[in-house]
Specification:
This is OBG-type G domain-containing protein. By secondary structure, the chain is of the alpha/beta class. The protein is 48% helix and 14% strand.
Length: 121
């Protein structure tokens, strides 16, 4: 998702329409980036500008590259920005660090969605 997606930049509306059908979103931010908290904010802003309330459902933040030297300080800034509102997973895709926690979260979110849909039908 790129800045300006709500104005149909990049994959724009095609991607956003697809994302609307998702029951759970994972926001993957790069801890090697100088400001991953700003990166997360841009993602939220783009979704909300596309459709107000877009981010009200299940979502979590996956902070990748926890193995880089600058990661811990940037992770703390991101943690403060999220302020406990959503799950935050610090991972290293390269080394497999904490990926099982992310998979468990996805499974729990999926199970909750299936249960909710079964109760509605």
């Amino acid at each position: 998702l790129v800045e300006g997606a709500h104005q149909n930049r990049g994959l724009g509306h095609a991607f956003l329409r697809h994302a609307e059908r998702c029951d759970c979103l994972l926001f993957v931010v790069d801890l090697e980036c100088s400001d991953p908290a700003a990166q997360y904010s841009v993602l939220l802003k783009e979704l909300e500008l596309y459709r107000q309330g877009f981010t009200d459902g299940h979502h979590a933040v996956v902070a990748n590259k926890v193995d880089v030297p600058e990661a811990m300080g940037r992770l703390e800034v991101l943690r403060e920005r999220i302020d406990g509102r959503y799950p935050l997973f610090a991972v290293s895709a390269k080394f497999g660090t904490n990926l099982l926690s992310v998979l468990n979260y996805i499974r729990s979110a999926y199970d909750a969605t299936v249960d909710r849909k079964e109760k509605l039908s």
